[in-house]
Amino acid sequence: LEQIAADKVDGIYLGEFDANRLAQMDMIIISPGLATTHPAIRFAKGQGVEVLGDIELFARFNQKPVIAITGSNGKSTVTTLVTEMLRQSGIKAVAAGNIGLPVLDALRQQDTEIFVLELSSFQLDSTSSLQSRASCLLNVSADHLDRYTDMAAYTASKQRVYQHTELAVYNQADPLTYPADNPDNAVPLAISLDNTDYGITEVAGQLWLNVAGEPLLPVNQLAITGSHNQFNALAAAALALSA
């Protein structure tokens, strides 16, 4: 409270949202837990108030490269893998967003060379200008349908990760991840266990992760098990190479 007073904040308002008060604001920064379709938020937007989330605010100030990752499942695993791959290669990578640091705290780290962002559909809903070197939609399955009207709306939210990206990594086995629109001419890159460039290949009777058309690592050397984690490792390798 002392800090708020020192910053000369006009006031703190608790309780139910007051649509008329919100409509008097210049900008509203919403939590991912609050839907952009909330009646009070919709009313404010209708009055010309700008509504954005923390990821969008981050995007407006960030000047470092970004790798963006979303999906119904596996996004935390892939975000962690990408971050560790980059760190092991000597790149100062920071995981943030829906994992690790909140993005606005991460933005304060001056020595960061690249941000690896895990993004939920809720965060993507209030983001419009985030630019990424590479982005990935791992998979789409029925989730959060208490917030979205149907699967089409949920999928469209997830697809927002491809906006303003240079490389769009998608799951060849899941048509819902295929980039629906590509206004920024992003390079599409398919990943699947059966893919010849990014998939599983056999070398001397042993299964290997194939990355960019070359055997990279025997599957039995992965510390994480299961075919889903083989896919996650392939996606992470593709994203890390984009850095």
Write up this protein.
- The model has no long low-confidence stretch (mean pLDDT 94).
- Helix 5 crosses helix 9 (227-242).
- This protein is α/β, with parallel strands linked by helices.
- It has a 6-stranded parallel β-sheet with strand order 4-5-3-6-7-8, with helices on one face.
- A hairpin with a 2-residue loop joins strand 9 (199-203) and strand 10.
- It folds into 2 domains: 2-54, 3-Layer(aba) Sandwich (Rossmann fold), CATH 3.40.50; 56-192 and 227-242, Mur-like, catalytic domain (UDP-N-acetylmuramoyl-L-alanine:D-glutamate ligase, 3-Layer(aba) Sandwich).
- The protein contains 9 helices and 11 strands.
- It is elongated and about 70 Å long.
CATH class of the largest domain reads Alpha Beta
Question: Major sheet, described briefly?
Answer: 6 strands, parallel
Structural class: alpha/beta
Q: Give the domain tally.
A: 2
Q: Which stretches of 5+ consecutive residues score pLDDT under 50?
A: none
- Approximately what portion of the residues adopt beta-strand conformation? 15-25%
Helix content: 25-40%
| CATH level-4 homologous superfamily of the largest domain | Mur-like, catalytic domain
Mean pLDDT: 94
* Global morphology: elongated
CATH topology of the largest domain: UDP-N-acetylmuramoyl-L-alanine:D-glutamate ligase
Number of strands: 11
Number of helices: 9
- Spatial strand arrangement across the major sheet: 4-5-3-6-7-8
Query: How widely separated are the two ends?
Result: 42 Å
